[in-house]
# Entry
Amino acid sequence: MLVIRKAVPSDVPQIRALIRELAEYEKSPSLAVATEEDLLRDGFGESPRYSCLMAEWDGGVAGFAFYFHNYSTWRGRWGMHLEDLFVRPALRGRGIGKALFAELARIAVHEGCARMNWHVLDWNTPAIDFYQRLGAKLLPEWRVMRLDGEALERVAGLHG
# Structure
């Protein structure tokens, strides 16, 4: 039986495990450096920076959806950014991902979000196909940009 629920602090070890599994799937395990302490502080402290839904199948953790809010200057309303949606490979094909996504959509509508955005790797055709079947569209004219590490510090004036 499938249960979708909001994460609680005691879920942090499982959230961390799911993040590591996702990083393995995306062929970047060394980049997943968030600690349980980071996740606990930033998701369950005084000013949470993210929210998380947990999916359980027959009492075991099956997957998660990790999200936070952003703001659309054009729409004049906030939106939802889906950072990660992951279902353990052995449990795929049972409607778990669709149920997580539908719950996110309900939350977004209930909270008055103008839209939901997320990134998907160009080689991840199963995910692209999944999202398109749900009605999502690729935005080919947009490119994701990132500034991190030393480059971020340099722009901030911390390095010459």
